[in-house]
Amino acid sequence: MPSRHTQSAPPSGRSSHAPKCVSVVWLAAIALVACAACDTPGVTLIDPDVSDDDDRSLTVTVQLEDTALAQVLAWENGVPEAQVLLNRVGDEFDPIVLQTDSTGTAKLQMLLPGQYRIAAQRVLREDEAGAAGVVVRAFGDGRIASLSAPAVLELALRADQAGSIVVSEVLPGVTPMIGRYDWYQYFELYNNSDTTVYLDAMLWGKAWELIKDYDAFPCQVTERWRNDSLGVWAMYIHRFPGTGADYPVGPGEIVTVALDAIDHSTVNPLFPDLTSADFELEGSADPDNPDVPNMPQVGPSHYHRGHGLQLYRGVWFLSLPLEVESLVTLIDPFGGREWVRIPSPALVDVVMWDFMLPIDDNFVAPCTLPVPRMLDRLAAAVPNIAFEHGISMHRKGLRMNHGRILLHDVNVSFVDFVQAALTPGSIEADSIPWPR
How far apart are CA 392 and CA 420, in angstroms? Predict the structure, then answer.
C-alpha cells in the first residue's frame, strides 16, 4: 500500500530556482573577445554592419486565456509580473528570464535568431486570490517558435488543472547505449486531489512523439498521430494490477513505480535503492522483486530491451482502465507497427520531456506539438547527463492545503517541472521546488 509523505508547512524561505540570464553571459563573452583582440598584433577590429536604427528586439505580451478572470483581476491589458523563459534550441545554457511589466509586456533587446522554447508562468498571490474569490492558483503557456529580430510573440496563460493523480517525479535514462547501466529509472504518482483514487487496472504508457519533418516522416502524414483531439496514440503500455479496489491512493499519498525494484546504489551510489517501490514494470529479462507487484505490458508491442518501458525522452500518459484490445487501431506506414488510441476522456495526466543538448536537431523544422495543446503545450527541457548525477525531474509545489501539498499543474511540462535532487518514495515540503 502507498504511504503518506507530506509535511504540514512549506519551507520558511522559498528557493527562487531562478535561471541565469544568458544574454548577460553572451555580452560578457563578446566583451572579453573584443578586449583580447585589442592587444593582439595583426588583428584589426571592424565595426559590424549594423546601424543604430536596427531593431534586434523580441517583445512578448502575456494574457490570460480566461478573459472573465482577467477582468476580475484587472488584467485585461496583460498579466503583470509574469515570468517569461526563453531557451534557444541547441544551446546548453540556462533559459533567459524576463518579467512582464504592468501591461503584461516583456522585452529582450538583443535576440539571436533561431528556434526557441518559450514559456510564461504566473502564480496568484494570496491577496490576489482573495480578491478574485478563488484559491491560490497558477497559470502557464509555452511553445516552440522560430524567431528572428524584430519579433513579437503573444502567450495566453491557461489556469491550473483540478486533477487527481499526477506524475510528481521522474528519473529517466539518458540516450540508450550498449553496455550502459540504466535500469535505475523510476517515476512517481501523487494524489493531488482531496478524494481517494484507485490505481487498479490504470494504464501507463508512451505516446507518439515524433515532430521532426523527416523525409520519411513528413508532417502531413504524421499529423493524424500528433494532433488528434480524440486522444493519443501508443504502442507501449503497462497496466497496474488490481481488480477495482485493491490499490487505493489517498489525498497527498505517493506511489513509486520502478523500472526494476532492486537496490541500484550497489552499481553507483548516486543511483536509487528501489527495493521498497510500490510497483515495478514487468519485462522479459529483468530481475523480479517478489515483494513488489508487477505491471505487465499490455500494448500492441513490448519494449525491446527486456526490462519494461524505459523512461527516455517523449510523451507519457496515465489513463483510466481500458480494454486495450477494444481500442481504435492504426498501422503506421513507416514500419507497419500497430498503434492504439487512448481516448482523451480517459487521460488522467500527460507529461513531456526532452533532453537539452548543445547539438540537438530534434526540434529543427518541427511540425507541431506531438500532442494537442489541450494535453500539454511544451516539453520540459533537461540536460542529457543530469540523471546520472543524482538529479531528477520534480513537479513544483504550488501551495499547502490543510497540511497537504498541492502540486503545480498547468499542462505545460516546461513550467510544471524543474530539476532537483532525487527523492524516491517521498514528497516533502522542504525537498520539492516551489515557484517564485
Answer: 6
Q: Which residues pair with 392 in a beta bridge?
A: 420
Sign of the four-CA dihedral 265, 267, 271, 274: negative
Give the best-scoring range by mean pLDDT among 53-67, 70-84, 217-231.
70-84
Is residue 373 a part of any domain in this protein? yes
Domain that holds residue 402: 3-11+162-421
**Pairing relationship of beta strands 338-343 and 231-239 according to DSSP bridges:** antiparallel
Question: 33 in helix, strand or coil?
Answer: helix
CA distance 22 to 28: 10
d(CA 338, CA 324): 12
Grid cell 489517498 in the structure block, residue: 250
Q: Are strands 279-281 and 253-258 parallel, antiparallel or unpaired?
A: parallel
Q: Mind giving me the DSSP string for 265-316?
A: GGT-TTS-B-TT-SEEE--SSS---TTS-EE-B-SSS--TTSSS----SEEE
Q: Are residues 327 and 208 in the same domain?
A: yes
| Strand spans (E) along 357-409 | 380-383, 391-395, 397-401, 404-407
The answer to whether the predicted template modeling score (pTM) of the entire model surpasses 0.90 is no
Rounded to whole angstroms, how far apart are CA atoms 217 and 292? 40
Strand partners, 391: 421
Q: How many domains does the chain have?
A: 2
**Helical ranges in 159-277 per DSSP H:** 219-226
The grid coordinates listed for 77 are 491589458
Q: Same structural domain for residues 327 and 368? A: yes
List, in sequence order, every residue forming a beta bridge with 144; answer none if it has no partner.
Answer: 117
Q: Which residue in 259, 277, 262, 264 sits closest to 388, CA to CA?
A: 264
Phi, psi of 324 (to 5 degrees): -55, -35
Q: Which helix (H) or strand (E) holds 129?
A: helix 126-132
Q: 348 pLDDT exceeds 50?
A: yes
Under the banding of pLDDT at 50, 70 and 90, the label for residue 133 is: confident
Q: By three-state DSSP, how is residue 32 classified?
A: helix
Structure confidence at residue 18 (pLDDT): 38
Please list the residues that pair with 61 across neighbouring strands. 105, 154
